Amino acid sequence: MVMTHTADAPRIDFAKAAPKAYRALVGLDAAAREGLDPALVELVQIRASQLNGCAYCLHLHTSDARKAGESEERLHLVALWPEAGHFFTPREQAALALAEAVTLVSHGGVPQEVYARATAHFTEDELAGLLAVIVTINAWNRIALTSAKVAGTDLRPGR
């Protein structure tokens, strides 16, 4: 078994131990982004990573968001976007609401109001891509947390 080492115990290196699954997830990630604004994708990935407590992915996606032109002010407010709604467009708010509902799906599913809000701002193709982005970041979060990835230690998978 291929492992990485942390202070506590060795952990699996997912990319080396399951290269086909890793490449498939990288492919899904790339396909999901097609046709979506890169800054919006990063905001969604940041919010899911915050909810999942994944510092590794949060570090990667805040860095990528800056590269996509995102402001420090908005990055600081993503965690509290409902209270700071005027910093985010209605489309971004709909995406962030969907990201929260899908990420926390075990807390009551995806409410109809959240889904309807998303359909009001995204075409069917965009909505499918957005859902795939959310599913993918949740998978990456779980892999990074399980394998004890350390924020700031390497490059984003597949990039």
How would you characterize the overall build of this protein?
The chain is mainly α. The chain has a single domain (25-146), classed as AhpD-like (Up-down Bundle). Helix content is 63%, strand content 4%. It is built from eight helices and two strands. It has helices spanning 14-17, 19-33, 38-52, 55-67, 72-77, 90-103, 112-121, 124-146, and strands at residues 3-5, 10-12. It has a two-stranded antiparallel ribbon with strand order 1-2. A hairpin with a 4-residue loop joins β1 and β2 (10-12). α3 runs parallel beside α6. The longest helix is centred in the C-terminal third of the chain and has 23 residues, at 124-146. The radius of gyration is 16 Å and the shape is globular.
Offer a concise description of the structure.
This protein has 159 residues and is mainly α. It has eight helices and two strands.
Supply the key terms:
159 residues, mainly alpha, AhpD-like, disordered N terminus
Topology at a glance:
Layout: E1 3-5, E2 10-12, H1 14-17, H2 19-33, H3 38-52, H4 55-67, H5 72-77, H6 90-103, H7 112-121, H8 124-146
Antiparallel strand pairs: 1-2
Helix pairs in contact: 2-8, 3-4, 3-6, 3-8, 6-7, 6-8
